[in-house]
Amino acid sequence: MAAAGLAAGAFAVGRATAAEGSESPDPTGSDDAFAFRGKHQAGITTPAQDRLHFAAFDLTAGSRAQLIALLKAWTEAADRMTRGLPAGEVGPTEGAVNLPPDDTGEAIGLPASGLTITFGLGPTLFRDARGRDRFGIADRQPEALRTLPHFPADMLDPRRSYGDLCVQACADDPQVAVHAIRNLARIGFGTVAVRWSQLGFGRTSTTSTSQSTPRNLFGFKDGTANVKAEETAAVEEHVWVGADDDPRAGWLAGGSYLVTRRMNMTIEVWDRQPLGEQEEFVGRTKDSGAPLSGGTEFSEPDFTMPGSAGPVIPKDAHVRVVHPDFHGGARMLRRGYNFVDGSDALGGLDAGLFFIAFVRDPDTHFIPIQNAMAKSDALMEYLKVTGSALFAVPPGARAGEYVGQALFET
Amino acid sequence: MRKPLAIALVAAVPLVAACTENTRGDDSGSGDARTVSVTSTDDACDLSAVDAPSGTLRFKVTNDGSQVTEFYLLGEDGLRIVGEVENIGPQLSRELVVNAPAGSYVTACKPGMKGDGIRADFTVSKSDEEPAVSADDQQLVGQALKNYQAYVQDQSDQLVAKTQQFVELYESGRDDEARALYPEARVHWERIETVAESFGDLDPMMDAREADLEEGQEWTGWHRIEKDLWPPATGYTPLTDQERATYAEDLMKNTETLDKRVQRLTYTVDQIANGSRGLLEEVATGKVTGEEEIWSHTDLWDFQANVDGARVAYEGVQPIVEQKDPELATTLTARFAALQKLLDAQRTDTGFVYYDDLSQDQVQQLSNAVNALSEPLANLTAAVLS
């Protein structure tokens, strides 16, 4: 992970400079830039940016060679855009007038804005719905990379779920994140098509101890106990896939698994719950985020402390149901975002939490916890899961490599 | 809403005349003299004042001790609870808002929630914001509790009887008659749904929808049979006679267990008010969206039954609300009526229009009316307890 300060100088010859002197909107994004290449992909332990555009793609045609060519082209474009450069080598306004530009142009004048682009591979890339091994990689499918099981309260819309490939673009400026997905989708036409995409605003987690804890649309602080980048041992233990984790999928070492869940909140009903009950559902106070067993936001919850009727943190409180203490110590690196996709047919907000988590093994770090939540978490009364997906996130591409290279070439 | 898990074990508490935070209309000119800071430690209960003018009092309770504490405002006799706030964890603060007429009171912090607590006298002096007191509150509450208990017991009796008829029709293959009785039997479940659902073991066996199941969980109950009576056009294998008998007997057995438990229940006045709110939540999350009866599309029967139950609960406490917050009572009465008018427009000879025959516009109107009612209804409990 590149330090933000370093990048600001090193990448100064970027889009922002190129547009100097021309009329450009006030940059709302930051000058932060994070190196695309490295041991691990960026956008995981990177301090969570404020905005998200996440897209899932399906392969529309093609051969193994076409897939590899796409990953190469995406790697190059992502490397450029995360530096604040245009997606293509020519640029949005620098090319021949009789050709469409190789960058769409809406990011002219905007800095890198902390953009990270993270690629993932879905189970159907290895074996499609009919069981076909389209790209000769089925024997390398990671054991844990399967379609997630049905969980209670799942009302999945297939058009918001699954996918052969995914791209997570995060930035401090929504236009920069959208620009990234738009240009990558364009590069992919002929090989992939967008299956679904999701915009997110307002990070709902912190991935660094330097960040303050944000609030989700229930109005509560979220992600207090998240795995943070600074906890290097915890990141190794809970986020990165180890070299010996899966003998079939050595290529995934240094990578991770990415779970997405589009969790619609029944906002209007939630808003009518008394404050005391909201706090009991969550197990924390709404103002400071302290556990109901007392202290401050970062105090460890005391699940045995007695209250007036049963423990002071109720048995079905969210903080208890998903706590690592009850799941063999399993922790996730959550990186979710709030979303509001306008209103539904009845005038209610189509809104909620676009849950994103990076885990070392979904079989131990996600599925059991999601099952416990679906079964006994008081918050489930106010949640409907409308989208779901699981992807394997290859390790980072080093100089001269493309993302996922080890899958095809070792 | 929080499901009243321990409902069966809670003895009817006498009128608890307070609420914690968020009381309606509690900000009308309450000056600092009516705000009292309370610091509760393991061995002390320090109040910033020992008296206050009458009106809406705010006790800001901070727990500086090491264990969970509670704070009470008690009547002069030290027994009657005027207001209480529970479950204040160490280093946390909570607010007790209470309408207190002039008189002598007792305050108590209860660190560790044991014993009589650390008590002191507290005086409320007469002011021009003297709240109205009603001598017959207690009687109104007693009547409400009795009536609601009788209503729930009666609905449970009818549920047992109709379920018996229904499973007999279903088991003997008289499917047309079973289909006709299905929504009518479920009415009695839906009218007391918040009570029935409070039994966490029975509810998933009796009322789970297919989407509610987790992998490997067996699907039983009303909606399992619903799907068999209104099967999807393709890809469905009808249940055998033997399977029918199994599911039918299972549903009947669970209904009888439910009834036994329901007949023993007693209620508190806040449970009744919360039940009214909870039933409207059921409408908003399941019925108005057509998700409850995805095979039979008889959602409007359930809708009406939830509204029936909510209205009966409201009407039970209505005399109390009319005294405490007449404006709220007027609003709720009008909005129940407005919602009922929309439902009545969908009535047919045999019951209601099927959900999938409603236009988007009609669903929208129903949803708007549910929202219009639910928003003030969420203040009912606080008003009843104020």
Automatic annotation (TrEMBL), chain A:
Every Dyp-type peroxidase C-terminal domain range: 213-397
What positions does the domain Dyp-type peroxidase N-terminal occupy? 41-201
Gene Ontology, cellular component aspect: cell envelope; cytosol
> Which metal ions or organic cofactors does this protein require, according to UniProt?
heme b
Checking SUPFAM superfamilies in the record gives: Dimeric alpha+beta barrel (SSF54909)
Task: Quote the EC number.
Answer: 1.11.1.-
Q: Does the keyword Oxidoreductase apply?
A: yes
Cofactor stoichiometry and binding remark: Binds 1 heme b (iron(II)-protoporphyrin IX) group non-covalently per subunit.
Q: Which PROSITE patterns match?
A: DYP_PEROXIDASE (PS51404)
Alphabetized UniProt keyword annotations:
Heme, Iron, Metal-binding, Oxidoreductase, Peroxidase, Signal
Location(s) in or outside the cell = Cell envelope
Q: Which Pfam families match?
A: Dyp_perox_C, Dyp_perox_N
Q: What's a Gene Ontology MF term here?
A: metal ion binding
Specify the domain of life of the species encoding this protein: Bacteria
State the Gene Ontology BP annotations. Answer: iron import into cell
Q: Does the keyword Heme apply?
A: yes
- Which family does the record assign? Belongs to the DyP-type peroxidase family.
UniProt function note:
Involved in the recovery of exogenous heme iron. Extracts iron from heme while preserving the protoporphyrin ring intact.
Name of the molecule in the record: Deferrochelatase
Q: Which organism is it from?
A: Nocardioides soli
* Taxonomic classification: Bacteria, Bacillati, Actinomycetota, Actinomycetes, Propionibacteriales
TrEMBL record, chain B:
Residues annotated as domain EfeO-type cupredoxin-like: 16-120
An example GO CC term for this entry is: periplasmic space
**Keywords assigned by UniProt, alphabetized:** Signal
Record localization: Periplasm
Main location per the UniProt record: periplasm
Give the signal peptide as a residue range, or say none if absent: 1-18
**Gene3D superfamilies in the cross-refs:** M75 peptidase, HXXE motif
Q: Does the keyword Nucleus apply?
A: no
Q: Which residues form the Imelysin-like domain?
A: 144-379
| A Pfam family the protein falls into | Cupredoxin_1
**What family is this protein classified in?**
Belongs to the EfeM/EfeO family.
Name this protein carries in UniProt: Iron uptake system component EfeO
* The species this protein was found in: Nocardioides soli
